[in-house]
Each structure stands twice: as C-alpha cells, then as structure tokens.
Amino acid sequence: MSSPVVLITGALTGIGRATAMAFAREKARVVVSGRHDDEGQKLAKELRNLGTEAEFVRTDVRHEEEVKTLVDKIIARFGRLDIAVNNAGTVGTPGSAADVTPESYQAIFDTNVLGVLLCMKYEIRAMLRQGKGSIVNISSSYGKVGGPTAAVYVGSKHAVEGITKSAAIELAGTGVRVNIVGPGPTETGMFNRFAQTKEKQGKFPRDTHSYQAHGNARRDCKCHRVHWV
Fold this sequence. Notes:
The chain is an alpha/beta fold. It has one domain: Rossmann fold, CATH 3.40.50.720. The chain has a seven-stranded mixed beta sheet with strand order 3-2-1-4-5-6-9, with helices on both faces. A two-stranded parallel sheet has the order 7-8. It is globular, with a radius of gyration of 17 Å. The two termini are 22 Å apart.
C-alpha cells in the first residue's frame, strides 16, 4: 500500500499535534482537524514542510454534519481512510461532583463522548467499504480510575473505553480494528490548565506497570497504556 491516509481530530495542540507530526515524519498522508482555521492551516503547512501531503479541515466533532463532511472530504481527496485517531477532547473546569450542572456535563460529554461516537460512525462506514482500517480512540489514565474534582471528565473517559471495546467486538473479523490509547500525565496546555499547579500535577494517576515519567507531547508523544484488539 502507498503511504497511509491518517486522520487526527483535535490535532491543533498537545497530543494531537504531536501525533500529526509523528505520522508526517513517517511520510503518511495526514488530515488534521480542529475548530480554528488559522492554527489549522499553519499546522498543515508545517506538515507539508516535512515532505508529506497534508490537509486541514475545520471540524467541530460535536456536530454530525461537520463530521460527515470531514470524512467525505478525505475520501474525495485521497480515495480512502486507513487510520483515524480520535483525539478531540476537553477537560472542562475542575470542580466537585456536588456542583455539576447539566451545562457542565454537556460541555464535556458532547466533545469527549458524542464526538468520538460521531467520528467512529463515519470512519467505520468508510473503512468497511474498503475492507480494512484502524481507529484509535484517545482515552486517559482516568479511563480506569476515579479522581477528585474530575467526576464528569473521568466519566467521559470511562464511556470512551466502553464504547471502544464494544465497537472492537462488533467489528471483529471485518478488517477494521478499534483500539484505545490511554496516556498518563502528559505536559500539554490542556493538562496544565486542568492541574493548575505542579503539586497537583504530581497527584494525577499513573499506570503502575509502565509509568516512567511525565510525558511531554512535543518531545516524545508517548503513552502509558494501550489496549490493542
């Protein structure tokens, strides 16, 4: 097969950006999506400067029509979609479970859960038509444990893990694989805003079997827990 076609959602910063750069260095054809045009076009240019084909498609994963258009544009441009990394996510504002509102719940679950489901819906359809493909959903160390002041975020990541495992079972034997990557604490803007202080950063969950050190998305794009199916 020629260079694979890779989609990364939430690709403009942090782990998504580092993932896009890593694929570009391997000469994959990369499509990045996010909600900000200027940053997206700038990233696509950086990726092309690495010697690969790259496109930016503005997409808000909370909206089904935008997700459908994203996948349609990929198929129209490249004729296939080989790998999809569903990375778009948000942590919301830390707070007690006693203070959760319908609005704060929706703000997190619409992106972290509905967004993953909508992306999977159209990625799976495209990959089934071509007979193979790989979907990787980005979870978190919090996909397995609980944590104070993060009830809604933690719940969203548990949901992503359950959705991913169920889809993997459903698609067994079709040539389409669905897997989870659960990064431990990784130095990104979103993580730093959520943790707020260095002291709090040190208290975030780590995988006891494979944790080595705080990750840095720009430096190493490493994860600490992977479920391969």
